[in-house]
Write a structure and sequence with these properties.
Blueprint lengths: L2 H12 L4 H7 L1 H10 L3 H14 L1
Helix pairs in contact: 3-4
């Protein structure tokens, strides 16, 4: 994992965003990744996470 990926949540906290907000703001990017790989199981789990948490 890159240093940027590890530090990003801490940077969000520093500007007043919580970790859940950070994760939810990245959902479209993650959807796109799973769609590119045609991973329907991951897409279904991601949808469930979004409905329950975001």
């Amino acid at each position: 994992m890159s240093d940027v990926a590890v530090s990003a949540p801490h940077e969000c906290l520093a500007i007043g965003q919580d970790k859940l907000h950070f994760i939810c703001s990245q959902m479209n990017n993650v959807y796109s990744l799973f769609e590119d790989y045609k991973d329907t199981e991951a897409l279904n789990l991601l949808k469930q996470i979004e409905e329950e948490c975001c």
